[in-house]
């Protein structure tokens, strides 16, 4: 579970850093968020499915390990 929290923390920090840089460059907050999330909106279906599968495998192993520890 630590890996999940670290990954979520890194994602949050990097996204906030990107939004902050766009804000400093003079974009308003809405435009800054739109520019940060743009790569996810221009993905094709196949790319998006591969992205979701990778995220699924990232979460699968720590969750499975957590439940194995809970049973013992």
Sum this structure up briefly.
This protein is an all-alpha fold. It has one domain.
Global geometry? elongated
- Rounded to an integer, what's the Rg over CA atoms? 16 Å
Q: Count the helices. How many? A: 3
Helix and strand pattern = HHH
Number of domains: 1
pLDDT < 50 stretches: none
Percent of sequence in beta strands = under 5%
Average pLDDT taken over every residue: 86
The residue fraction in helices comes out at: over 70%
Give the beta-strand count. Answer: 0
- Biggest pleated-sheet summary: none
| N- to C-terminal distance | 17 Å
The structure class reads mainly alpha
Describe the structure in your own words.
By secondary structure, the protein is mostly helical. The protein has one domain (about 1-70). It has helices at about 1-25, 30-40, 45-70. About 0% of the residues are buried. The mean pLDDT is about 85.
List keywords for this structure.
single chain; 72 residues; mainly alpha; 3 helices; 88% helix; elongated
Blueprint (SSEs and pairs):
Blueprint: H1 2-24, H2 29-41, H3 45-71
């Amino acid at each position: 579970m630590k890996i999940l929290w670290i990954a979520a923390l890194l994602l949050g920090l990097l996204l906030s850093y990107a939004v902050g840089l766009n804000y400093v460059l003079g974009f308003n907050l809405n435009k800054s968020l739109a520019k940060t999330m743009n790569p996810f909106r221009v993905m094709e279906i196949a790319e998006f499915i591969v992205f979701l599968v990778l995220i699924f495998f990232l979460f699968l192993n720590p969750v499975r390990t957590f439940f194995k520890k809970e049973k013992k």
